[in-house]
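In practice, a research group might receive sequence data for several interacting partners and want a quick structural hypothesis before committing to experiments. The following worked case mirrors that situation: the sequences arrive first, and a predicted assembly follows.
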Amino acid sequence: MKICIIGTGYVGLVTGTCFAEVGHDVVCVDNDPAKVKILRSGGMPIYEPGLAEMVKRNVDASRLRFTESTPEGVQHGDVIFIAVPTPPHADGSVDLSFIEKVAREIAGCLTQHKVVVDKSTVPVKTGDKVVETIKRYSKGKVEFDVVSNPEFLREGFAIEDFLKPDRIVIGVRSERAVAVMRELYKPIPAPLIVTDINSAELIKHAANSFLALKISYINAVSAICEASGANVIEVANGIGMDARIGRRFLDAGLGYGGSCFPKDLSAFIKISEQLGYDFRLLREVQRINSDQMDRFLKKIIETLWVAKDKTLGVLGLAFKQNTDDVRQSPAIDLCQRLLEEGARLRVYDPQAMGKARAVLKDRVVYVDSMDDVAIGCDALVIATEWPEFKKLNLARAKEVMTHPILFDGRNLLDPAELQRLGFVYKSIGR
Ligand code: UDX
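A structural hypothesis for the assembly, expressed as tokens:
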């Protein structure tokens, strides 16, 4: 089928490329000329494992191309995906101005029936507004359908999550739209849930908020484990074996971050409030999340007594492994808090150095290999769960550090080994 994706960010670019990969004919539109130029020259504006190769393969096969022109994209596509940002306002509510603008632009170039699909994460009842907007701005009577098709892509695993999803959710209002969406997703082997638009929109916020709740739950349990001499990994394994709970998203750490959970939680609380429900449980999830960082920072300060004028090595800057994204990254938050304490920082991340530099600027020393971070440090901190940090040369680190002290914010290392090497080792919930 012919598809148009409007917005080539983390979601739009993966969605468009994967649709091309499974055989559709895709045009991706972006209003950022620089981004279109990078993509057209085979470059990658984001890091997502396997994406660069997949883009090249499909561009070479003439199933994928990039343009700045919305009319060109809308003309091309039978199905038009809206995948533009829905950033938070200061009060947590969702800024839908990009959605509204794109809906107007689509309306302006409709000349025949199109299915307009909202892929971006939006508050429930946004679909109604998109329908209203397209009706108002389309010239004369043009037939169209609006569909909600929320994404469940984890950064760093987005291609896998697109091609092998647990389920595909579509919210529709017409049989015609159902038929088009079934045809579109036919190449993807996964259960396809057909529901109304409001339910589909709510599934997205409810899912992400539940995942964040799960993480805050195990982080709260990690505090109790520390106070009781229990081991949070053992506890997570023990409860996760219950099929009703499941082991995933029960890894205690520095709390959740990223461009989705914090934003989606604030949005869901605000949406609920506007609908007359005070979602206190989710506010507690947020509180536990920020407490988790406070507790870890306290652990560092207490161990060092004073962080001021101490040199700390921070391993990991991305908000999680397998991504270069530093938006709402707990690791960046930790760096900023340590800088406020007057500490000097040497930092390393396998992928996120560029994006981190835009935030931390020249307030830290950027080190280009993980084993060199420890040189001259009074302590090491693991802040992102990159698997390569498990292979840290600890014996060498001990030689080049002033004292062998290591804070493991993601429970990546083995306490027994650190103890054997003579490290003061602090981690989470054990
Ligand atoms: C999330 C949702 O998983 C995805 O479905 C949605 O479409 C977008 O938001 P993402 O934010 O990319 O994806 O990352 P995810 O893997 O969900 O992790 C989110 C945060 O939780 C990260 O900061 C991660 O470090 C943290 N996390 C995750 C934990 O602290 N413990 C865990 O067990 C799992």
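Before designing any experiment, note the following. The chain has three domains: 2-195, 204-286, 287-426. The pocket of uridine-5'-diphosphate-xylopyranose is lined by residues 151-155, 208, 211, 215, 249-251, 253, 256-258, 260-261, 319-320 (CB under 6 Å).
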